[in-house]
């Protein structure tokens, strides 16, 4: 194919026009509020209310990432050791591929129906004497959002970590047993060190996934102080000059944070690929 | 049963319940013609009816939004493939050392999520090309972009599994031109991957909300959000229908990928 290098041109032009150019403009404007180089907007974007949005976003993303990753990993381990029923693993993998993409508006409605104030599960729990809303577990609170996010976080983690779990060879366990190691020693010296890079890579991916989630949080509680909802507020609320710079600065910080996370993630993933089996 | 097995099953059953309960709750909200406050466990068999869904599907505004979303999905799928496919083939055959670079580029949509990119789009195109943002189809390039991490994985896995490079070299040594090999050997073999990538793009487009909402476009998700506010039961039914449709599309992708012996985790898009 003589056209080899040419095949890349439309692609690069496309990425340049629709991804790099708008992003570069935003980053540039956030660093030049009122037309001159300056850090005023960038500093404002991480002070007072906006600082707490970042803190809330990081806490929400971290909580849903760590819990999602732990449950996803445990699920993968539970499934891997199970020989019967044989359909269970392919079924769960298929469901995970589906559910990891089921975010957005319909998912938010599903959880309103389940754990909202009039939700089915809420009523069931109230009848047995535990009203979750009274205990701060409403669907629009912090733990409510974590609960909803887990619906796509757990399956995503399961997909990401399953190849690593499947990479734990049965022969290693047998070899370590023959050499006199108990299960604890096996997990401490072999199992966990092998799984750790995948696990951390998975946590970081889930973090990025939760940090940029928008629709679910917007539908469930539009007034939550998290970064994506703040960006929306600044962009749509009022068009006072200066507030736009603030939105640009929030975006710049978001990109910096996500970029750092993705770079670290790919380092861990490279390490994880050593022993993985698809 | 051993203690380990008990723990295993407790975990599997708990997680299954967690996944099933919101769907079942949604089904009750959507298909039981009972005031929401009375949806208690003892009334589980009362008043089931599909009237909510029928109402929702009959709305002319729904047809409008669904048509927009459908066309967006088709256009985004075509754009996505016409940009990625030639590149993926060229890199697989000619420049494998560039693979890492391409993987890195397709990771970019994770770094710049829709809610961040939409700010840049409003800041740039709104002033230099207002006519562009006026049309709902201005979403097409951004949806194509957003789907790339997922579709590239499906295409790359497909190319590797058919040993594209070997096929190409065999074809050349038998005297076929590059064009013949492309159209008569590679494309027919890639059919499944192409379908998987397109359906995956479609499923993503049907669910995208941030871009459409901030650019004030009337797509299925934005319509759904507004409609449910006014018609709770019918809105819930429509949401459930959209969710099932998305799930069905993704399940088709999984089936196609599996039949070809490919890894289903392409749907995760990032590893």
Can you walk through the features of this model?
The complex is a heterodimer of chains A (278) and B (271). Chain A is mainly α. Chain A has one domain (50-272): MetI-like (MetI-like fold). Chain A has helices at 4-31, 40-44, 48-80, 88-99, 104-115, 120-127, 142-166, 170-178, 183-211, 215-220, 227-236, 243-272. The longest helix of chain A is centred in the first third of the chain and has 33 residues, at 48-80. Chain B is mostly helical. Chain B folds into two domains: 1-49, no CATH class; 59-268, MetI-like fold, CATH 1.10.3720. Chain B starts with a helix and ends in a 12-residue tail after the last helix. The model of chain B has no long low-confidence stretch (mean pLDDT 86). Chains A and B meet through helix 1, helix 3, helix 4, helix 5 and helix 6 of A and helix 1, helix 3, helix 4, helix 5 and helix 7 of B.
Question: What topology does this entry show?
Answer:
The complex is a heterodimer of chains A (278) and B (271).
Chain A: H1 4-31, H2 40-44, H3 48-80, H4 88-99, H5 104-115, H6 120-127, H7 142-166, H8 170-178, H9 183-211, H10 215-220, H11 227-236, H12 243-272
Helix pairs in contact in A: 1-12, 3-7, 3-9, 4-7, 7-9, 9-12, 11-12
Chain B: H1 3-31, H2 51-58, H3 60-94, H4 99-111, H5 114-128, H6 130-134, H7 140-161, H8 164-173, H9 178-207, H10 210-214, H11 220-230, H12 232-259
